[in-house]
């Protein structure tokens, strides 16, 4: 394989155990290890009928079933994947990435022909871009529309290797009746998402599917290496973009006499001059002061409303040349609103970053008329602990804490990892239940705040359980709004 990948061997070393299919389907279904296909099929029937807690199902699969049933409302009797809608098609800004991934898929497809398997590649929306492998297996897959220009996102087609891999990090295997749609219960598949190193969002996926037979336990390892090969291209592009942003920052920060901060296209700070660092309260050793060239070094500005303004600016910057816009945001001492002007940094008509000029008012005014985020209204919040799925009522959660893209829910039952990645995503799920962002890393359940404490330097801390001495920090920018909400 290209890029130093090991040979792709997907057939298991021993004959898989075959058992009867669920719910009257003709023919055998695949038996995952170590739980038998029959147990999973029974669990699927029970869950699809409305039961909540199901034993004998892997937590990542059960979490996917919850999404399919309660959030996406996918029809479990679906037998053909829908075609991709035009509005789902991503802008092909990732041409080099898809070229690399397509070449890898074609090579892998030749290797799996003898095993009766199909290799597919999708974009970040789950739209199939290419399919390779055994011709007979491809013809069978086409009966379910597992072919280019079909949509295999989880919200379209339920639990499957491609769609579910776009929802989580790392490789995902879906075997037999672990699929949400019964028509796919005789397939085994394994997929992995390719993620943008800047935004952590999925830009593509690669998947291997096999009819009426299981996959080798080594398949996920091959997928991990394949993803790394493609992500090297993404990293190279990200560093090229960083050079553009860094050069523009150095040029503009010397031309204006105001605080300036540079951000990547994900809204993370890449660089700031001394005036901006002082305004934002950054420590003198912050890598942003010398240039956070590596994505892992970057800092997310804790300025309420900035993320929405950046999204607006990126949309508006697509049309007119030399566009700029400004918004009034709570920045600096006393959290008084300050004009912040945004200017895009572009490369070949693509926005690769943004410059923020604090205290400067220039260009189009931001009116705040953005579409509100669609808040999920789950009856339960799903967490994972010790390979088990934990179902939580929102009232059980005292606060949520982010550790990069992993979110921990602090509850009466201890710290539980949220099944949803990213604090912004968890916030959308919990906001309808009285949770508010009080810090770039913390959400607090306002109903569970028992005490407030002020630090020696005037910092504000929230206490949800005086017995456990839990202190949730409140950033100075969120403090005024929090006091208003709590009536103190």
UniProtKB/TrEMBL annotation:
Domain of life: Bacteria
Coiled-coil region(s): none
Ranges where the HTH LytTR-type domain occurs: 381-488
Listed name of the protein: LytTR family transcriptional regulator
GO molecular function: DNA binding; phosphorelay response regulator activity
Family matches, as InterPro entries: GAF-like_dom_sf (IPR029016), LytR-like (IPR046947), LytTR_DNA-bd_dom (IPR007492)
Classification via PROSITE patterns: HTH_LYTTR
Organism in which the protein naturally occurs: Prauserella rugosa
SMART domains attached to this UniProt entry: LytTR
Source species taxonomy: Bacteria, Bacillati, Actinomycetota, Actinomycetes, Pseudonocardiales
């Amino acid at each position: 394989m290209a890029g130093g990948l090991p040979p792709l061997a997907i057939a298991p070393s021993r004959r898989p155990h075959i058992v009867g299919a669920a719910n009257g389907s003709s023919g055998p279904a695949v038996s995952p290890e170590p739980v038998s296909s029959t147990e999973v099929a029974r669990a699927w029937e029970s869950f699809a009928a409305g039961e909540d807690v199901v034993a004998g199902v892997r937590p990542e699969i059960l979490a996917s079933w919850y999404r399919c049933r309660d959030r996406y409302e996918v029809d479990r009797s679906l037998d053909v994947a829908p075609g991709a809608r035009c509005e789902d098609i991503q802008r092909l800004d990732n041409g080099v990435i898809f070229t690399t991934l397509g070449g890898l898929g074609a090579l892998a497809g030749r290797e799996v022909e003898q095993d009766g398997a199909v290799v597919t590649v999708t974009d970040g929306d789950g739209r199939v871009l290419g399919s390779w492998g055994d011709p007979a297996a491809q013809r069978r897959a086409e009966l379910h529309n597992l072919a280019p220009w079909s949509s295999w996102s989880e919200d379209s087609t339920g639990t499957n290797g491609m769609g579910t891999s776009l929802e989580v990090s790392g490789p995902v295997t879906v075997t037999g009746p672990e699929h949400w749609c019964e028509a796919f219960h005789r397939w085994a598949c394994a997929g992995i998402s390719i993620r943008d190193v800047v935004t952590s969002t999925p830009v593509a996926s690669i998947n291997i599917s096999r009819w009426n037979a299981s996959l080798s336990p080594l398949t996920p390892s091959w997928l991990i290496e394949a993803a790394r090969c493609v992500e090297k291209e993404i990293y190279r592009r990200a560093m090229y973009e960083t050079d553009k942003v860094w050069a523009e920052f150095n040029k503009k920060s010397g031309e204006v006499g105001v605080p300036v901060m540079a951000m990547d296209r994900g809204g993370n700070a890449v660089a700031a001059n001394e005036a901006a660092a002082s305004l934002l309260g950054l420590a003198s050793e912050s890598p942003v002061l010398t240039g956070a060239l590596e994505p892992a070094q970057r800092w997310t500005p804790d300025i309420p409303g900035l993320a929405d303004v950046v999204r607006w600016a990126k949309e508006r910057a697509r049309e007119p040349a030399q566009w700029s816009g400004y918004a009034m945001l709570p920045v600096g001492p006393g959290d008084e609103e300050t004009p912040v002007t945004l200017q895009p940094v572009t490369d070949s008509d693509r926005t690769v970053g943004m410059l923020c000029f604090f205290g400067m008012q220039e260009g189009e005014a931001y009116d705040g008329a953005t579409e509100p985020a669609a808040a999920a209204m789950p009856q339960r919040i799903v967490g994972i602990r010790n390979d088990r799925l934990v179902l939580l009522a929102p009232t059980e959660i005292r606060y949520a804490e982010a550790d990069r893209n992993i979110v921990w829910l602090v509850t009466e039952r201890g710290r539980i990892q949220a099944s949803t990645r990213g604090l912004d995503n968890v916030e959308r799920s919990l906001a309808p239940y009285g949770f508010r962002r009080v810090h770039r890393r913390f959400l607090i359940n306002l109903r569970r705040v028992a005490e407030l404490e002020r630090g020696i330097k005037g910092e504000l801390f929230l206490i949800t359980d005086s017995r456990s001495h839990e202190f949730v920090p409140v950033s100075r920018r969120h403090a005024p709004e929090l006091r208003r909400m709590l009536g103190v």
